[in-house]
Amino acid sequence: FDMACNSSGCESGGCYGREKENGCKVVDVKETVRLCVKCKSNEPMTFGDGGSDDGRFCAECFRSNVYGKFRLAVTSHAMITPSDNVLVAFSGGSSSRVALQFVHELQVKALKNYEASRDRSLPVFGVGVAFVDESAAYPSLSGGMSDAIELVRSTVLSLSPPEKDLHVVTIESVFGSESVEARDRLVKLLDSVSDETGKEDLLLHLKMLSLQKVASENGYNRLVVGSCTSRLASHVLTATVKGRGYSLSADIQHVDARWKVPIVLPLRDCVWQEITRLCHLDGFDSLKTVELARHPQSGINDLVSSFVALLQEENPSRECTIVRTAAKLTPFYFNKIPETDDSCVPMATQRRLKKFNLKYDGSMTTEAFCPICNGPLNGSDSSEDESDALYAACCSSCRFQILPQEPSSLDHFGSLLPHHMISQVKHHQKFDSQTYLREKIKDCLLLDDEEAV
Amino acid sequence: MEASEGKSKKQGASRLCCLCNQRRPVLKRPKTLQQICKECFYEVFEEEIHQVIVKNHLFKSGERVAIGASGGKDSTVLAYVLSELNRRHSYGLDLFLLSIDEGITGYRDDSLETVKRNELQYGLPLQILSYKDLYGWTMDDIVKMIGLKNNCTFCGVFRRQALDRGAALLKVDKLVTGHNADDIAETVLLNILRGDIARLSRCTSITTGEDGPIPRCKPFKYTYEKEIVIYPFITESFSLHTYAYFKKLDYFSTECIYSPNAYRGFAREFIKDLERLRPRAILDIIKSGEDFRIATTTKMPEQGTCERCGYISSQKWCKACVLLDGLNRGLPKMGIGRARGGVNGDHQKETKKPASAARSLESKQCGSLDF
């Protein structure tokens, strides 16, 4: 008879714990055979990375666990529905590679169902890939950039059918072109930020802007970002130490619809260890050379990463606890997919979205946002009587770490920022809800410009 | 501009104090990195605290206020500054010193000496309460029994109650403690790390316990620890006695001897590193803590009273009674970690076992003070 050992510390699936009776020798007839704890048929995988759960699951079950989390996130938050056109932000790093892989597999399955169905009522969602070349900001990357882009290209090619468009853009494309002037402008802009951390964060905001630009100019309506639990844990702490406690809950949800193209985080519930193990399993290691996402961090962001790594050593579930705590903060109304009057959304999908309250009413805009980081502004942040419109419009964190400290330099700085950031500033001079709402609905108004008040 | 004469001068020595533009700067202010002179430092230090007190309406004229005095740098400076401001701005407060003796040999006995000296210096009446008197156990006894893992839990719970009891004994209206900006920032971080959203929502409040026995407030909420350390050295009117003693205190450091095993250490180190990179980050953490969007329903647990001693408690028994019960019954793990059974779980009354040989103290009642 088999008696599986019930102790939680026992890693092997089929050990035989028997009591010795009266000193009689108990001889184990079978050798301890390790079996996957889930399917109980295959040999478990050992990754040898010293992490938890090592040697418990076979490769298939491990993979299906992680994929299962991805799929659950996608369905329970309506991240990707049949009529969507999804852009995957791909940095070459492990997280975004896994995101790309999983989105591809989801698409393959949808295609299979489509081809097998008789009425072909549910279309297959489209997938594109975007890669942002940041070498203008980090010159050390420029050497390996063309090789990196080639690798990205071949990766995307290998993920078909269904075919996926690849969009390679430079970070200076936020200025409207990819010219030398744009590159220079970027360098000038970054040089005028004296705080190291501010510089890094500004680059992140610019990167997001460039992704948004690619997405909206190419007809995508979802942006998939590969942020995992571990990255979010670091974000929780960096946001806290930068005084961004109010806007934090906006950044760590599954859906972030502040943007023109809503951002979805399908890997939010997966930890870094799962991601790296999966990359190892699927042979994505070769992309480590394209690990451009890991460009050098310094300052506060780096300090927090080290701190979190230290905490993880002391307790491997710390990252999850941090994100779980932050998840208890109240999210914003835009942390759901926005309601769109989209006639091409299948009825079944529409019904389902309504039933589970997965969307919000897009006209319900009650927040003002910082033009630089797009963080929702806390009432207490607004300083009245500010002579400079840009200063008045920004959150206190961006004011400190990004904007120049000299008031006389603000104008020049504003001129260096991409148009998209500055264009919002006029609205925020005094948050006039009438004008703001009129802006939102003006597409529907029948009045001519001259007649509009 | 003065020409530098080839001698290496301290940077800023040729400039003037940022604030008064008259005197020579002697230090870089930790909070703002401004180069300021001695006089401006203690002026701005005291003035900021005064503003915090006024803006947050911490006190009312005529109140009896107990200063939780450990003898450490925070409470020593607090006692000094508060009595100064009370006099200078006529707060009209009746100030007392209240000290708790946890019974940690080599740590508390020395700092208590400071507090006794403070009493003499500032003419503030002093009351000392010991864990031994209140609970029947010193921290040394407790550590002997439970080791070094959860001892901080015991000490913290007991101290909180002890301060309240002492305050009730002295019939004071309010307690002030020397918790500084670094402490609060650290607490915010720890609550995030531990997943305690309820505590997270409360820990940045400058006044707590307004609906409890004794409200307590933290005038040093925005005061940097580094500045509290500098202050006695800078301020001439700070008695030489205290100064000398203060230097000696550094020797024992303000760390409790049992603290190396405390989890707080991680967060503390991190904050120190953070401060080096960006001094205002400490205040930014506090700001984040204040701004976190936490539903009001998570804030207040239902408040009742402890069945055993009458102290406020959200459970049947207050935490101190639970811990004491565990100690007295030789079950030191009781009350540590998640509640499973026991008094506050399923209320099972076990038959009283005979006192164990090791610890034969009768379980002391928490006291019959009316709260």
UniProtKB/TrEMBL annotation, chain A:
InterPro entries: CTU2, Rossmann-like_a/b/a_fold
Superkingdom assignment: Eukaryota
UniProt keyword list: Cytoplasm, tRNA processing
Keyword tRNA processing part of the UniProt annotation: yes
HAMAP family associated with the record: CTU2
PANTHER family (UniProt xref): CYTOPLASMIC TRNA 2-THIOLATION PROTEIN 2
Protein name as it appears in the record: Cytoplasmic tRNA 2-thiolation protein 2
Origin species: Brassica napus (Rape)
From TrEMBL, chain B:
An annotated GO BP: tRNA thio-modification
Keyword Cell division: no
The keyword tRNA processing appears for this protein: yes
Enzyme superclass (EC): transferase
Gene3D superfamilies, per the entry: HUPs (3.40.50.620)
Database matches in PROSITE patterns: UPF0021
Molecular-function GO term, any one: ATP binding
One annotated Gene Ontology cellular component of this protein: cytoplasm
Sequence ranges assigned to domain Cytoplasmic tRNA 2-thiolation protein 1 C-terminal in this UniProt record: 304-334
Annotated region (Disordered), positions in chain: 338-371
Lineage: superkingdom: Eukaryota
Pathway(s) served: tRNA modification; 5-methoxycarbonylmethyl-2-thiouridine-tRNA biosynthesis
EC number from the UniProt entry: 2.7.7.-
Cellular localisation: Cytoplasm
One matching Pfam family: zn-ribbon_14
Binding site for ATP: 68-70, 74, 100, 178, 183
Keywords, comma-separated and alphabetical: ATP-binding, Cytoplasm, Nucleotide-binding, RNA-binding, Transferase, tRNA processing, tRNA-binding
Residue ranges of domain tRNA(Ile)-lysidine/2-thiocytidine synthase N-terminal in the record: 65-226
Family: Belongs to the TtcA family. CTU1/NCS6/ATPBD3 subfamily.
Role noted for this protein: Plays a central role in 2-thiolation of mcm(5)S(2)U at tRNA wobble positions of tRNA(Lys), tRNA(Glu) and tRNA(Gln). Directly binds tRNAs and probably acts by catalyzing adenylation of tRNAs, an intermediate required for 2-thiolation. It is unclear whether it acts as a sulfurtransferase that transfers sulfur from thiocarboxylated URM1 onto the uridine of tRNAs at wobble position.
Name of protein: Cytoplasmic tRNA 2-thiolation protein 1
Organism of derivation: Brassica napus (Rape)
